[in-house]
Amino acid sequence: MNWPRALLTDSGGFQMVSLLHLADITEKGVTFQSPVDGKPMLLTPEESIQIQNRIGADIIMALDDVVKTTITGPRIEEAMYHTLRWIDRCIAAHERPHEQNLFGIVQGGLDPVLRDICVRGLVDRNLPGYAIGGLAGGESKDSFWRVVAQCTAALPEDKPRYVMGVGYPLDIVVCSALGADMYDCVYPTRTARFGTALVPEGVLKLKHNAMADDTRPIDPTCACMVCRTYSRAYIHCLVTKDAMGSQLLSYHNLYYMMKLSRDLHTSIIEGRFPEFVCNFLRIMFPKGDVPEWVCNAMEVAGIDISSCCSPFSSSQD
Amino acid sequence: MALRFEILGRFNRARAAQLTLPHFVCQTPLFMPVGTQGTIKGLATNQLEEIGCQIILGNTYHLALRPTSELIDELGGLHQFMNWPRALLTDSGGFQMVSLLHLADITEKGVTFQSPVDGKPMLLTPEESIQIQNRIGADIIMALDDVVKTTITGPRIEEAMYHTLRWIDRCIAAHERPHEQNLFGIVQGGLDPVLRDICVRGLVDRNLPGYAIGGLAGGESKDSFWRVVAQCTAALPEDKPRYVMGVGYPLDIVVCSALGADMYDCVYPTRTARFGTALVPEGVLKLKHNAMADDTRPIDPTCACMVCRTYSRAYIHCLVTKDAMGSQLLSYHNLYYMMKLSRDLHTSIIEGRFPEFVCNFLRIMFPKGDVPEWVCNAMEVAGIDISSCCSPFSSSQD
Lengths: 317, 398
Hints:
The structure holds two protein chains of two kinds. By secondary structure, chain A is α/β, with parallel strands linked by helices. Chain A contains twelve helices and eleven strands. In chain A, strands 1-5-6-7-8-9 form a six-stranded parallel sheet. In chain A, strand 2 and strand 3 form a beta hairpin. In chain A, helix 2 packs across helix 3, helix 5 runs parallel beside helix 12 and helix 10 runs antiparallel to helix 11. By secondary structure, chain B is an alpha/beta fold. Chain B has an eight-stranded parallel sheet with strand order 4-14-13-12-11-10-6-5. Chain B has a three-stranded antiparallel sheet with strand order 1-2-3. In chain B, strand 8 and strand 9 form a beta hairpin. Chains A and B meet through helix 9 and helix 10 of A and loops of B.
């Protein structure tokens, strides 16, 4: 790739269960139907780590058994214990621990007891870092933040915490307030391909007719190449008929996310994190209708956002 | 007239010139990428500047459909709309109509076609084409011509040539911005030297700022192609730019430049990129080929572009088989290649080493000396000695 900065690879497990037919989980690993010739294949913890050893990323992820948060029943517990037993196999198979950092992934669905068992099991293995997995699926925002809060409270202070599959800028701000450090998501680039730009107010839909003669940049406060060069009218014209539109929006959206990351880091270091959060929320919710789940999470995080909430907040997700 | 054309160097018929347009000072010979609807597929404005692009072609037909010439005008013209600070050229809209639409019918009035929006019959007249182009605001605008495929025969060719001549007067009359936009006439006449001659003389009489050689780059043989270009460049005025529309392959551009043409446009470099093909001095490199999968060299080790300095063939092979990024990187490289070819043609003529440049170009492209016969014939007429790169027994291939 000729990429001089850091790389992280996932285990391969998630794509398999989400993309392939006949994905079946056993003690051995994930069996699936090969997309090349349809034959049954097996991805084991050992195999996942070997593949990641060859790819050579700075951070590699353990093969976990991830279930949708919308399901219930014994499968959640089974998956959590698979994850714990597989981490030892991952550790044993890892041939490059001095060059690549193996992160464990906390599973357990929305069940605090299962999550707690998983956290403690992974922490016992003294890994370089920990991910909070199994979220960013169909669960309610209220359930989401509570699991993140529980995990960040229980995971070691001195190691990075990575919330997988997150996400929306608002979710990132909340999770950071609760003590998480790293995030990943296809959202910014995927939504770009639908003609949607990320802006401080939320989103801007460039395909909308109102954009056709709007000569402002996507975000007048944004310093990225796209906002410095092109108008909404021009991008509107592109997104409705040319791949270039998606590209320019992808560029802007990723710039937005990188800036959000920098702003979070800097505002915490400079001792003005609560002000940053309030300003962020004020622009996104100018009528003060900050969602209840955000208010609850910020309360647990100890951040006073009363100045940006209207007196009667409704319970919306 | 809104341009200045100053010849800075020559070799026989070939010229290197400075073409001063309202938005940019260009060096010719030059290649214009085609930016169909105000954008080159895969490259942002800053990248176009990076690779040295001087002038871009916009398709009037696509722009008139979306976002419409009225909106472009309202927003300050296409330059401002795209935020492209250099030069622009728009075509007349006629070609896309006959090639893309059903029921395109040509009459004395203009081109009737079926609206792609609602299927209703519509008419593009010379007046309408010029008005649309006046709104778009490009530095160079093209007359509406009646273009027929070079593969047909019969009275249609003559009819089309005379339409073109009668329509040029209507274009001139309709043109409201002659001090800001240069109206080029287009020579038609198929492969018939008599018709081509009538058309050239008719257009030259109108004393236009520049002239295009149209109707080629269709299905005609290369032998017919170069002869029409040679005839037209010999007959067109020395002191005005000559634009061969729809060309094209690097080899064709070198030959046409040797014969005295100055400007070119083609979708080929970007379109072939989208099929995974890169332009290289040896010809083409097909990145989808299995052999590329573990080839760690850049596309072209002699190329200084961002893509060749950064990525290997193996990486691009991986992309072209499954990601739009592959096409983009190849588009970037291919356009860089065309811009460099333009610069090399200009500079080699000015520095008095054009024949050496041509020989070197042909030697790399035809290492066995199998330079096609049509190229040899054209170079003979151009007065360029390429015997050092032709094998003694050249076969007649196109």
